[in-house]
Design brief:
It is built from three helices and eight strands; from the N terminus they run αββββαββββα. The longest helix is centred in the N-terminal third of the chain and has 24 residues. By secondary structure, the chain is of the alpha/beta class. The chain is 30% helix and 37% strand. The termini are far apart. The strands form two sheets. A five-stranded mixed sheet has the order 5-2-6-7-8, with helices on one face. It has a three-stranded mixed sheet with strand order 1-4-3, with helices on one face. A hairpin with a 5-residue loop joins β3 and β4.
C-alpha cells in the first residue's frame, strides 16, 4: 500500500470511529416516565346530593409556569425544577379539568356535566370558573394547590366566590407519590366546589 492509500484508509477509519461515538451515547439516555392525575371513586353507594342541574366546568386558568409537559417541583427558596424525564401525559390544565369533572360526577347530581367549551347553543344551569394560582410540590413533602373559583348561573350572574389552599403530603420522595398527592388535592377541591354548587 502506497503512502496516499495508507493516509486515505486512516482518514476513513477515523471518520467511522467518530460516527460511532454518538450512537454509543444514545443507548445510555434515561427513559421518560409519564404520569396522570386520577379521580377518586366515591366509597358511598348513595346518590349525589342536591337537585339535578346541568353543570359546566371551566374555563380553568393555569399559571404559565405549569404550561409544560415536565413536572414542576420546588427545591427550596425561589428555586424550581423541571423534570426532563418525568412528564405529564397530557397538559396539566386539561388533566386537572378532566379529573375535577370526574370527581364532581360522584358528588353532585349534574345532568349533563360538561367541560368548557360546551356545545354550541347550550349553556349549563351552573358554571364553575376556576383560577389556579399554584399546583406543585416538593418531592417527599407537601403538594400544594391554591385556587379560586366562582359559581355562575345561566345568565352569567355570580352566585358564589371562594378561594382556598390545599396541602397533601407525598408518601415517598418520587414523582409517582407526588402525582398521587396532587390527585388527592383535586379530590379535596372537588368537594368544596360541590358544596358551592349546592349553596353551602
Amino acid at each position: 500500500m502506497n503512502t496516499r492509500s495508507a493516509v486515505r484508509a486512516c482518514i476513513v477509519a477515523m471518520t467511522l470511529a467518530a460516527g460511532m461515538l454518538p450512537l454509543a451515547g444514545c443507548g445510555k439516555s434515561a427513559p421518560t416516565h409519564f404520569y396522570s392525575l386520577n379521580a377518586t371513586p366515591q366509597k358511598s353507594e348513595a346518590a349525589p346530593a342536591g337537585p339535578c342541574m346541568s353543570v359546566g366546568v371551566g374555563p380553568v386558568d393555569f399559571p404559565a409556569y405549569l404550561d409544560r409537559a415536565q413536572i414542576v417541583t420546588r427545591s427550596g427558596g425561589n428555586r424550581m425544577h423541571l423534570a426532563e424525564f418525568d412528564q405529564w401525559i397530557e397538559t396539566p390544565r386539561e388533566n386537572f379539568q378532566r379529573v375535577l369533572t370526574e370527581n364532581l360526577a360522584g358528588l353532585v347530581c349534574a345532568k349533563p356535566l360538561v367541560t368548557y367549551p360546551w356545545p354550541t347553543g347550550g349553556h349549563p344551569d351552573r358554571q364553575v370558573v376556576i383560577q389556579v394560582a399554584r399546583f406543585d410540590g416538593v418531592l417527599g413533602q407537601d403538594a400544594v394547590l391554591r385556587a379560586s373559583w366562582s359559581i355562575l348561573d345561566a345568565d352569567g350572574n355570580n352566585l358564589a366566590w371562594r378561594s382556598n389552599e390545599y396541602r397533601e403530603t407525598a408518601a415517598t420522595p418520587d414523582y409517582d407519590s407526588l402525582a398521587a398527592a396532587q390527585s388527592k388535592l383535586v379530590e379535596q377541591f372537588a368537594k368544596d366546589v360541590a358544596a358551592s354548587l349546592l349553596g353551602k
